[in-house]
Design brief:
α2 links the parallel β3 (56-62) and β4. This protein has 140 residues and is an alpha/beta fold. Helices cover 29% and strands 21% of the residues. Keywords: Hydrolase, Metal-binding, Zinc. Residues 1-95 form the CMP/dCMP-type deaminase domain.
């Protein structure tokens, strides 16, 4: 949040070890693809670990958006653990639930989705960010 980004973080975990981590950086890097989930996947790849992500778990504070969901499915990540849902353009609860799609032949079965982990803490972070945005708009 201090860099002006939404408070979203993601960890990619394999066999109990963090292999990738990411924080939301779309606004500060001026690159819409710098969402926390994609950044965690990029981080794992750039560490040179040649991570087979099929048995990884991705932990994220917010439900992955459609873009992130595509990247998650491309890398065949097995489990997604979500703090809070964001149903407008997200990959599970929106009208385009890419993370739940089972009719795309190039992808394996959908990942297991676990929702509501540290939900209150994630909601508090999200509320704080929304308050910052509101105050900034009021100042204009």
């Amino acid at each position: 949040m201090q860099a002006g980004n939404p408070p979203v973080g993601a960890l990619l975990v394999k066999e109990g070890k963090v292999v990738g981590e990411g924080i939301e950086a779309g606004k500060s890097k001026k690159d819409i693809t710098c969402h926390a989930e994609i950044e965690a996947i990029r981080n794992a790849i750039t560490k040179g670990q040649n991570v087979d992500m099929q048995d990884c778990t991705l932990y994220t504070t917010h439900e992955p958006c459609i873009m992130c969901s595509y990247v998650i499915r491309h890398h065949k990540i097995a489990t997604i653990v979500i703090g809070i849902e964001v149903p407008v353009i997200e990959g599970v609860t929106s009208s385009l639930p890419i993370l739940k799609a089972s009719d795309i032949s190039i992808w394996p079965d959908p990942p297991q989705i676990v929702k509501g982990i540290l939900k209150k803490e994630c909601e508090n972070l999200n509320s704080a960010y929304q308050n910052i945005l509101k105050k900034a708009q009021e100042a204009i």
